TrEMBL record:
<feature type="transmembrane region" description="Helical">
    <location>
        <begin position="289"/>
        <end position="313"/>
    </location>
</feature>
<protein>
    <submittedName>
        <fullName>MFS transporter</fullName>
    </submittedName>
</protein>
<feature type="transmembrane region" description="Helical">
    <location>
        <begin position="255"/>
        <end position="277"/>
    </location>
</feature>
<feature type="transmembrane region" description="Helical">
    <location>
        <begin position="212"/>
        <end position="234"/>
    </location>
</feature>
<dbReference type="Pfam" id="PF07690">
    <property type="entry name" value="MFS_1"/>
</dbReference>
<dbReference type="InterPro" id="IPR011701">
    <property type="entry name" value="MFS"/>
</dbReference>
<dbReference type="InterPro" id="IPR020846">
    <property type="entry name" value="MFS_dom"/>
</dbReference>
<keyword id="KW-1133">Transmembrane helix</keyword>
<keyword id="KW-1003">Cell membrane</keyword>
<dbReference type="GO" id="GO:0022857">
    <property type="term" value="F:transmembrane transporter activity"/>
</dbReference>
<feature type="transmembrane region" description="Helical">
    <location>
        <begin position="464"/>
        <end position="483"/>
    </location>
</feature>
<keyword id="KW-0046">Antibiotic resistance</keyword>
<feature type="domain" description="Major facilitator superfamily (MFS) profile">
    <location>
        <begin position="1"/>
        <end position="486"/>
    </location>
</feature>
<feature type="transmembrane region" description="Helical">
    <location>
        <begin position="388"/>
        <end position="409"/>
    </location>
</feature>
<feature type="transmembrane region" description="Helical">
    <location>
        <begin position="320"/>
        <end position="339"/>
    </location>
</feature>
<feature type="transmembrane region" description="Helical">
    <location>
        <begin position="67"/>
        <end position="84"/>
    </location>
</feature>
<feature type="transmembrane region" description="Helical">
    <location>
        <begin position="154"/>
        <end position="175"/>
    </location>
</feature>
Length: 490
C-alpha cells in the first residue's frame, strides 16, 4: 500500500517540474506569450495548493479511497489531454485539471497512511517516505522531461502519465482500504470559491504586470479584487466553527515562521529548477537531456541535505540549522548571479550543490517544525497546511520570480535597428519569440537579434537570482528571530 501511495506522490512531484526542460520545444510549437508560459508552468501547483485542504475535507466525507481513485482517473485523462494539446489555452486548461487530480490524490493519501499505520514509529516512517517521494519527483522532473522531449516531443512528458495512472488505478483498487471520518467537517463551498478566485486574481495581475513591464487600470483592479477576496476568505475562516483552513494555528509564531520558511525555500528551489533549465537551453545551447543532467548536482545535494537534516538538528537545533541553511542557499543564488554565464557551467556546480543541500535541510526541518509547533490533536490540520505551503511556494515562486524575469528581459532587450515597431514588440515578448522572428530575418540581422535576446535573458536570470537571494536572506532572519523556543521550553 505504501508503495502505491508513494508512487502516486512521485508522479505528482514529477508533474510539478516535468515541463521545465520541454518549455523551449513547446514554446516553438504553441507560441505562448510570456504570461501564458508562466500560467502553463505554475497553474498546476497553484490549483493543487488551492484545493488540497478542500479535497481533504471532502475525502473525509465521501471516502478517501474513492477520492484517490477518482483523482487518478482525472489525472490520467488530463495527462492525455495535455499531451495532445494543440493550443496554449488547451494546455493551460489541461494543467488545471492535472492540478485538480493531483489535489484529490495528495489530500487523501496522507489520511490513508494515518489510518493504515497505527504505530507512531511506523506512521512517522511512512509519512517520511511519502514526503520524500514528492521531493524526489520534483527534482527528477526536468531530467525525465528532457529525456521524453528529446525522444518523442514535449507531449510525451504528459502522455507517459497515462499508463502509470492506469496501473495505479487497478492496483490501488485492491490494496488501498476505504476509510471515512465518522464526524467529517462541513464542506464550505463559499470558502473554496473565495480562496481559488482570490488567488487567481492576484497571480493574474502579477503575471500581466510582468508581461507588460508596468501596470494599468485592469491590472490594478484585478489585484485589488483578488486581495479583497482573500481578505474575506481569511475573515470567514476566523468566524466559522469548522473552517476550511484554521488560521488560528498561525497565532503560534513558530508555526507561522516555519510555514514561511517552507514557502520561501521551496518556491525558490522550484523556480531555480525552472529558470536554470530555460537558461541553459535558451542561452547556453544545452539539449533538453543535457539541461536535465546539469541539474543532477542540485538533486543529489538536496537528497543529502534532507537525509542529514535530522542529525544536524539534533546537534544544533532546528532554529539555527534552518537559519544557516537558508543563508547558504541565499549565498549560492548570489554566486550564480555573479557568474551569470552558462558557458561557465563548471563554476555553477559548487553553488548548485550548496543550494540543493541547503534547500534539502529546510524542506525537512521546516516541515518538522510545522508539525512540532502544532498541538498533537491538531496534527491533521497542521499536515494540511504543511502540504499546501509546499505547493503554494512552488506556484508563487515561479509566478513572482517569473514575472521578475519577464520584466527584466523586456527592459534589457534593446531596440534592434532595422526592425519594424511590431517586430520590436515580438522580440521583447520572450526569448523564444525572438528566436522565431530571427529565422525570418535577413542573415545579417539574425545574429544581432539572437545575441541581444541572449544578453537580455542573461540579465533576466541574474535579476531573478538576486531577488531570490534577497528573499531567502529575509526568510533566514525570520527563522532566527521567530523560531526561538518558548520561555517554558527552556
Amino acid at each position: 500500500m505504501l508503495a502505491v501511495v508513494s508512487t502516486s506522490l512521485l508522479l505528482c512531484g514529477i508533474d510539478l517540474t516535468v515541463l521545465h526542460a520541454a518549455v523551449p520545444s513547446m514554446s516553438t510549437e504553441l507560441h505562448p506569450s510570456s504570461s501564458e508560459l508562466l500560467w502553463i508552468v505554475d497553474i498546476y501547483s497553484l490549483t493543487l495548493a488551492a484545493l488540497l485542504v478542500t479535497f481533504g475535507t471532502l475525502g473525509d466525507r465521501i471516502g478517501r479511497k474513492r477520492m484517490v481513485l477518482s483523482g487518478f482517473a482525472l489525472f490520467g485523462l488530463a495527462s492525455a489531454a495535455a499531451g495532445l494539446s494543440s493550443t496554449t489555452s488547451q494546455l493551460i486548461a489541461s494543467r488545471v485539471l492535472l492540478g485538480v487530480g493531483a489535489a484529490m490524490i495528495m489530500a487523501s493519501t496522507v489520511a490513508i497512511i494515518r489510518v493504515v499505520f497505527t504505530d507512531d514509529r511506523e506512521r512517522a516512517l511512512a509519512i517520511g517516505v511519502w514526503t520524500a517521494a514528492h521531493s524526489v519527483g520534483a527534482t527528477l522532473g526536468p531530467l525525465v522531461g528532457g529525456l521524453l522531449t528529446e525522444q518523442w516531443g514535449w507531449g510525451a512528458a504528459f502522455l507517459v502519465n497515462v499508463p502509470i495512472a492506469l496501473i495505479i488505478l487497478v492496483v490501488g483498487a485492491y490494496v488501498i482500504p476505504e476509510s471515512r471520518n465518522p464526524r467529517p467537517r462541513q464542506w464550505d463551498l463559499a470558502s473554496v470559491a473565495l480562496s481559488v478566485t482570490g488567488l487567481a486574481g492576484v497571480v493574474y495581475a502579477l503575471k500581466q504586470g510582468g508581461e507588460h513591464a508596468g501596470v494599468d487600470t485592469v491590472i490594478v483592479l484585478t489585484a485589488v479584487g483578488g486581495a479583497a477576496l482573500l481578505y474575506v476568505f481569511v475573515r470567514r475562516q476566523r468566524r466559522l466553527t469548522e473552517p476550511l483552513l484554521d488560521f488560528g494555528l498561525f497565532s503560534d509564531r513558530r508555526f507561522a515562521a516555519a510555514t514561511l520558511c517552507v514557502i520561501g525555500c521551496f518556491g525558490s528551489y522550484v523556480a531555480l529548477l525552472f529558470f536554470l533549465t530555460q537558461w541553459l537551453q535558451n542561452v547556453g545551447g544545452f539539449s533538453p537531456v543535457a539541461a536535465g543532467l546539469a541539474l543532477m548536482p542540485l538533486a543529489a545535494a538536496n537528497a543529502v541535505g534532507a537525509t542529514t537534516a535530522p542529525w544536524l538538528s539534533a546537534r544544533w537545533g532546528n532554529r539555527w540549522v534552518l537559519t544557516a541553511a537558508l543563508g547558504v542557499f541565499a549565498l549560492a543564488m548570489l554566486f550564480m548571479a555573479l557568474v551569470g554565464d552558462t558557458g561557465a557551467y563548471p563554476l555553477l556546480i559548487a553553488p548548485l550543490v550548496v543550494a540543493g543541500y541547503g534547500a534539502g535541510i529546510v524542506m525537512t526541518l521546516g516541515a518538522d517544525s510545522i508539525m512540532s509547533a502544532a498541538d498533537p490533536d491538531r496534527s491533521g490540520e497542521a499536515a494540511a497546511i504543511q502540504e499546501t505551503s509546499f505547493e503554494l511556494g512552488a506556484g508563487l515562486g515561479v509566478a513572482v520570480l517569473g514575472t521578475t524575469l519577464t520584466a527584466s528581459y523586456r527592459l534589457a532587450m534593446p531596440d534592434t535597428p532595422g526592425l519594424s515597431e511590431s517586430d520590436r514588440d515580438v522580440v521583447k515578448e520572450s526569448f523564444s519569440s525572438a528566436e522565431e522572428l530571427a529565422e525570418k530575418l535577413e542573415p545579417q540581422a539574425v545574429a544581432q537579434v539572437v545575441d541581444a535576446a541572449r544578453v537580455a535573458y542573461d540579465q533576466g536570470f541574474t535579476t531573478v537570482a538576486v531577488f531570490a537571494a534577497i528573499g531567502l536572506t529575509g526568510t533566514a532572519v525570520i527563522a532566527a528571530v521567530l523560531l526561538r523556543p518558548r520561555p517554558a521550553d527552556g
